[in-house]
Write a structure and sequence with these properties.
By secondary structure, this protein is of the alpha+beta class. Helices cover 36% and strands 23% of the residues.
């Protein structure tokens, strides 16, 4: 199906983009367009004006600092994330997730900011950004403001970006020896996930701190607080992880559809949490071993 008639503008700067968004109540930001264009083609939504920011250098960059922290422009593509050697060294999971995203065409056009702002329950980056404690930099008429990723995702297809604003950049704090695990259950390699879990863990023999975030089980990424409470201060053993991960899905009411029931998603969320935690603990142990060895 063809797009309905709509206006289109390609601003030369972020300020011009904000002016266009402010002047047109029905305007939407167009970055990679991998989801938005399909939505418009199916007439599931209508847009009065598309503001194309995909070529703005102000929104398309990767800045990795000496301490391992990184700021990524919102219009940076999956392919650019995958290719960045500096990002792979400092924040490897970001590029790994990008590399595993669907197919080459989507990776060449899709953007990390677009994925975050679409805020689909099955989107791949939202739970990861929450687990990494990322900061979302939003540009608007009054300047720029920073929102923690945990407060950015407000509901299904809803974020903290207000009308007349746009997501400009995402900042990741340094891992500083922490390990990260990212696990998804998918029907096929190029399909949406049925359950997803991301774990951030600091500590090798004893777990000093942990964040466990579930995806695909609610309208927003969900912190598995009960799992985290059982982990912190305890041993980084397979038995402890199994016991903590077993409660990850408790209290959740995930959606049911033709692919999976709510009960199945709940159970698989716990399984993905366990696998992500074991990966994260392995990553933290390797990081500390490397540091102590002076390598």
């Amino acid at each position: 199906m063809l797009l309905a008639a709509t206006e289109y503008v390609r601003p030369a700067s972020v300020e011009e983009a904000l002016d266009a968004l402010r002047a047109n109540a029905g305007a939407r930001v167009l970055a990679g367009g991998q989801t938005l264009i399909n939505v418009l083609k199916h007439r599931a939504a209508s847009v009065a004006l598309l503001v194309d920011v995909s070529r703005l250098a102000e929104l398309r960059f990767i800045d990795v600092r000496g301490d391992g922290s990184a700021t990524i422009g919102a219009a940076t593509t999956y392919a650019e994330l995958e290719r960045s050697a500096e990002l792979r060294a400092a924040q490897p999971v970001i590029g790994e997730v990008a590399a595993g995203t669907v197919d080459r065409q989507v990776r060449a056009r899709g953007t990390i900011g677009g994925n975050a702002c679409f805020a689909d329950a099955a989107s791949n980056y939202p739970p990861l950004l929450v687990a990494l404690d990322a900061s979302m930099e939003i540009a608007g008429p009054g300047g720029r403001r920073s929102v923690p990723a945990a407060e950015f995702f407000l509901g299904l297809y809803r974020t903290a970006v207000e009308p007349g604003e746009l997501l400009a950049a995402i900042t990741l704090p340094p891992l500083s020896g922490a390990g990260v695990g990212y696990r998804s259950l998918q029907i096929a390699a190029d399909s949406w996930a049925l359950a997803r879990a991301v774990a951030w863990v600091r500590g090798s023999a004893t777990i000093e701190a942990a964040r466990v975030v579930l995806g695909c089980v609610a309208g927003t990424p969900v912190r598995a607080a009960a799992t985290e409470a059982l982990l912190v201060g305890g041993p980084a053993s397979a038995e402890a992880v199994s016991a903590a991960a077993a409660v990850a899905g408790e209290g959740l009411e995930p959606p049911s559809d033709v692919h999976a029931s709510a009960g199945y998603r709940r159970e698989m969320a716990a399984v993905m949490a366990k696998r992500a935690l074991l990966d994260a603990i392995g990553g933290a142990t390797h990081s500390q071993t490397t540091t102590r060895g002076g390598g």
